[in-house]
Amino acid sequence: MRTRQLGQSSLEITPIGLGAWAIGGAWRFGWGPQDDADSVTAIRRAVERGMNWIDTAPAYGLGRSESVVGEALRDIPASDRPYVFTKCSLVWDADRTVTHSLRPESIRRECEGSLARLGVERIDLYQIHWPKWQAAPADDDPGSIEDAWHTMSELRREGKIRYLGASNFDADQLARVHAIAPVTSLQPPYSIIRRDVENGVLPWCREHGVGVIVYSPMQSGLLSGKMTRERIASLPQDDWRRNAAWFQEPNLTVALGVVEVLRDIAARHGRTVAEVAIAWTLHNPAVTGAIVGARRADQVDEFTRAADVTLDASDLARIDGALAAPRRSA
Questions:
Q1: Residues contacting 27, CB < 8 A, separation 6+
Q2: What Cα–Cα distance (Å) separates residue 138 from each residue in 23, 125, 133, 134, 330?
Q3: Alpha carbon of 150 to those of 4, 100, 108, 145, 181: distances in Å?
């Protein structure tokens, strides 16, 4: 795959990176049961197919995702190893209760834990997972993003991380931390049916030379072309998508209508529905790359050519026209 410079860093990344959320398996925001052997095989297939970065987080499976990524990396020759991006700010206790912390001592503990699980000496991109976690109590005081950013800057000077990134930040929050130390990249949700960041956030990133690696370009599988009402109804009880807004009516009808349009466009281009959905996000000039999750090797094969799909004006117009109902955030 060709590569793109991530923000103003020295990282040259492929337009598609492997997302390791689902391979974390069961936890409060998990995707149901997952086989670690399948996860390792999927990671290795992604590297074989040319992807040069993996995005994970300690919260995904409460350490499990990072550990599985570390296992996969051990058998990949050093010259072929992908960049590893991970996150901080979501922590858990012995009872597996997840909380949010931006405090310096917590950020340092998280960094050391991630280094150990991943089996690396330095994290290529270290991102604040959430500036304020939506599941936290209203009166919770986890510390400030400024405190966290100062700590991450110190960790960079100590050689434990290469670059600083943010996830789920708005433009104001980005400006606050950018004044302390440069933001290399932002990781926001972005898909055909979830475009909130087009107003404010993506323009800010372009103006300030901040890279953007979007997550959920297929809206958590809903735009993959394989999701049906029957499949949604049969999702495991511990799959967080069962209660997600876009998997409920009236949003679901809108989303499935978009999929039918994508299916027609994909057939015209000789590509998969998934590739078209991902290609749409990469069409935005503010987007550097898209994070695409996979739980098995065969799923990786279904989207690796997405960066080669060129959507023309008529394709884009048809996609916009398919959004007959108001867009809503998930």
A1: 59, 60, 61, 62, 64, 96, 98
A2: 30, 30, 10, 9, 20
A3: 28, 17, 11, 9, 8
Residue matched to tokens 């959507």: 311
Collapse the DSSP code of 76 into the 3-class scheme (helix H, G, I; strand E, B; otherwise coil) and give the result.
Answer: coil
Ramachandran category for residue 197: left, alpha or beta (phi over 0 → left; psi -120 to 50 → alpha): alpha
Could you tell me which residues are beta bridge partners of residue 98? Answer: 92
Distance CA 55, CA 279 (A): 19
Note the pLDDT tens digit of each residue in 208-230. 999 999 999 999 999 999 999 99
**Is 60 known to be catalytic?**
yes
Enter the tokens of residue 18. Answer: 């492997």
Q: Which of 176, 170, 171 is nearest to 150 (CA)?
A: 176
Which of 107, 112, 70 is closest to 91 using CA atoms? 107
In the set 60, 163, 190, 215, the catalytic residue is: 60
- C-alpha–C-alpha distance, residues 153 and 147, integer Å: 10
Distance from C-alpha of 64 to C-alpha of 76, rounded to nearest angstrom = 19
Contacts of 152 (CB under 8 A, 6+ apart): 88, 107, 126, 128, 161, 164, 181
DSSP state of 132: S
The string of pLDDT tens digits covering residues 67-84 is 999 999 998 998 999 999
Mean pLDDT highest for which of 20-34, 99-113, 237-251?
A: 99-113
Q: Please give the Cα distance from 21 to 242 (Å, whole number).
A: 16
